[in-house]
Amino acid sequence: MQKAAATDVPVHELIRNRWSPRAFAEKPVPGEILRPLFEAARWAPSSNNEQPWAYLVATKDDAENFAKMLGVLVEFNATWAKQAPVLALSVAHVKTQREGKPNRVALHDVGSATAQLTFEANSRGLLVHQMAGFDAEKARQTFTIPPDWEPVAAIAVGYPGDPASLPEKLRERELAPRTRKPLGEFVMSGGWGHTAPFVAT
């Protein structure tokens, strides 16, 4: 299933077709397909080249590890994410490596890495759904995450599935049109609240 965005101006097809499904096919994702996703994340930009990202990954063929990952999700997300063949957790190093000072852009950089992972996944026919709905403290304990590292987001990866496999309310959300704020609401120039001239309609 595809849900191409109805963009106001043309953008790359990878961006138009990127969306976050909840229905995933049972088809496994082999290691030779997964590895390039994390290679893409590896080459994301980061402040001072800190590369403050790490990923904990569980595939369905590793039942014990997959159950651990599923166990840190909130119940709502676990109900659909259990169908995904790959679950992961992005983690940010919130202190700089050289000086041990707070890295205020670490979460931004991890988001950038996961965005690159997502587009690499999309280019290979996979879809990605990131989730804020997980227990960060439980994740820290379950995976013995060090103190200077902060769990950021849970991630489901897999091939597109059938929306009919979802409960009714989730199926409705899966099939609903995609929407976004207009550019004029968030692209500003000269001061806060002043819409940039090039996006004014």
Overall pLDDT score: 96
What is the topology, as strand order, of the major beta sheet?
Answer: 1-2-4-3
Helix content: 25-40%
Please give the largest β-sheet.
4 strands, antiparallel
Strand tally is 4
H-E string: HHEHHEHEHEH
Q: Could you please say which CATH topology applies here?
A: NADH Oxidase
The termini sit apart by 32 Å
What low-confidence regions span 5 or more consecutive residues with pLDDT below 50? none
Number of contiguous helices: 7
Q: Using the alpha-carbon principal axes, give the shape.
A: globular
Q: What structural class is derived from the secondary structure elements?
A: alpha+beta
* Name given to the CATH homologous superfamily: NADH Oxidase
Tell me the domain tally.
1
What is the name of the CATH architecture? 3-Layer(aba) Sandwich
Q: What is the CATH domain class? A: Alpha Beta
Describe this protein with a few key phrases.
single chain, 201 residues, alpha+beta, NADH Oxidase, four-stranded antiparallel β-sheet, 7 helices
